[in-house]
Amino acid sequence: MKKWILALPLAAVSVPVWGQDGHTEADDSSNQIVIACYRTPEIVVTGLPLSLGDAAYSTQNIAMSAVHPIENALRQVPNLQQFRRSDARSANPTSQGITLRGLGGNASSRALLLLDGVPQADPFGGWVAWPGYESLAIGSARIERGGGSGTNGAGAVAGTIELFSQNSGNLIELGAAYGSRNSVDADVLFGRELGQGQLTISASYARGDGFIPIIESQRGSVDRPAEYEQAGLAVRYVAPISENTELQANVRAFTDDRERGFAFSENHNDGADASIRLVNRSDTGWQWSALGYVQIRNFDVSFGGVADDRNSVSRVFEQFNVPSTGLGARFEVRPPVGDSIELRIGGDWRRTEGVTNENFFFADNDTPRRSRRAGGSTATYGGFIEASAQIVDALILTGGGRVDFWSIDNGFRREIELINPFPGAVRSDEQFAGRSGTEFTGRGGFAFNVTDELKLRGAAYLGWRLPTLNELFRPFRVGDDATAANELLEPERVKGVELGLDWDSGNVAIGVTAFYNQLDNAIANVTLANGPGLFPGVGFVSGAGTFSQRQNLDSIESKGLEIDTEFDLGDLTDGLSVRVAYSYVNADVKSSGVATAVNGLRPAQIPRHNASASLRWEQDNGTGAAVSLRYIGQQFEDDVNIQSLNDAFTVDGRLGFAVNDSLLVETRLENLFNVRVEAGISGNNIIERTFPRTFWIGLRTKIE
């Protein structure tokens, strides 16, 4: 897969689409619907129109461009975070799950991520392959904070993030940028009307020599820059098949190679997705949509054990082949029940299966002593019904419920000897009994327009998430630390309430939301012992490491406040705007039994304070400037709250100059003041940081 992706034209880069203010006109040939949303540019919704009842929930919309990778663009939403602070250029891919509202704790996603209706979490591990998205092809994102997605399926215990493809029209856009440490970003988009439909092809490429992740004062001779190389390709075709019905077909593929900054730390991740969807948007009759999709993933990763003086390293573990597959379908119908009433009825199904193949206990760097193979399958299928009503002009009520059936099947873990004196001898061969269950969830809320400018809203919800195959069956290591899987994990269940106020006076918008969430059976990596020693499920752990196991905690309680503000200063200077956002999260663990030690502590990787601000001036031709500020509060690396990651304040900037209508020159700075943003601390207190100061200069051109 990698060879044909890398053969794509490498003419483009992460430079913003000039003149892009997020406004996208509806295209008659594709019948896409333009929806005006709270204090953000209009977005294009690729499925059925937004629901009447969505006004009751805390939402935020973001217009995308190629200025940032998708994952970094989403970071402007307070309390939306990944398990680690690092991005996809230096993080381990398996640590990039996404969550909201302080409901983190491990690397699996607790927020449901969708692209044009298709779930995006890795079928095996629940993390997200961020290099697999071409920023040019995605026009906008819609974030709904709070659990219980209701109509979008299981998995949204913290919220739902929807990505929408954009309609490119007849356009070719390409560019190139060069950055610090021999970094290159490239992307290209080709859009053409084909018959009565729209064909869009997009591709991206990124590489860099990388930086040394370990902080300078702790480096040894083994530490080196963590290089990366990533590429992706996406093809989308949208065409009407009748007056009200549209066909959407999508195929995308990606490849992702990274190193973690020393020998035996390389990893590779690749995948391909395909989906087909029919959408009927009748103005007067039944509306409906039907979706089917497939995900194919594979990754391999190696782990090295570094000596305390960081002057030697040896291979200790490798996952040399982890294939997984996700299959799914979803349908929804909206019968015509009246001008002020909306009814949604539907169902969904998702199946995942995967296997991890591992070598460990290396006699030398090339000869493993033992091999492990583990995996299984999961399935969920359910149905939902949701109703919303405009009671009076100022009041909307909404509510609904769903029932889901789940199963965990075919689980196994098998270990064998690989070298003398007993090559091929079976050390363990475990077959895990299948399990199944039923989950009943629901949500409801209201939106009341107190005045033309002020809206009061409130919501309550229940949601759930099934453990991933990774959590159930796959042990793993990070440096000297080892974590065992747990085939007996129960599903996570969330219950929550929120109350919010939205003020919009035209030039000023302020949104404030207070929330309370309780995540029962929260899955976390619970520290059980310190090395050295032999431990079940992982084997030997050195004196520099810790032994943990995935456990269901009693609960995580999270309560807090979110504030979003936006100021349109166009009356002062055309194209000038300011946005400021802040979140406060007070989260703590409730636990007993073997996890009593973490009772009352803050969940790992959860900061209390998170804030962002941006000042942006941009003309229609792309000439402009922007400054973005971001603060992330102190957080703990570990569940026992001993290893602390310091807070950090970073500044990014951008300057753009349009030479003419077709050519843009741009410079960008990431982490202007080269602040040390700590991403992780190992058991022997070795600190890893995120990306240092990075300078970019690039060109972008359009051909229409």
UniProtKB/TrEMBL annotation:
Asked whether the UniProt record includes Methyltransferase among its keywords, one would answer no
Gene Ontology CC annotations of this record:
cell outer membrane
Sorted keywords for this record are: Cell outer membrane, Membrane, Receptor, Signal, TonB box, Transmembrane, Transmembrane beta strand, Transport
A Gene Ontology molecular-function term? siderophore uptake transmembrane transporter activity
Q: What is its main location?
A: membrane
TonB-dependent receptor-like beta-barrel domain sequence ranges? 238-672
Domain (TonB-dependent receptor plug): residue spans on this chain: 57-160
**Presence of the UniProt keyword Iron-sulfur in the record:** no
Which InterPro entries does the record cross-reference, listed alphabetically? Beta-barrel_TonB, Beta-barrel_TonB_sf, Plug_dom, Plug_dom_sf, TonB-dep_rcpt-like
Q: How does it sit in the membrane?
A: Multi-pass membrane protein
The signal peptide, as residue positions, is 1-19
**GO BP term, pick one:** siderophore transmembrane transport
Where located? Cell outer membrane
User: Which is a Pfam family this sequence falls into?
Assistant: TonB_dep_Rec_b-barrel
PANTHER family annotated for this entry? HEMOGLOBIN AND HEMOGLOBIN-HAPTOGLOBIN-BINDING PROTEIN 1-RELATED, TONB-DEPENDENT OUTER MEMBRANE RECEPTOR
> What family does the entry list?
Belongs to the TonB-dependent receptor family.
Name the chain's protein.
Answer: TonB-dependent receptor
Q: Which organism is it from?
A: Parasphingorhabdus halotolerans
- Lineage, uppermost ranks: Bacteria, Pseudomonadati, Pseudomonadota, Alphaproteobacteria, Sphingomonadales
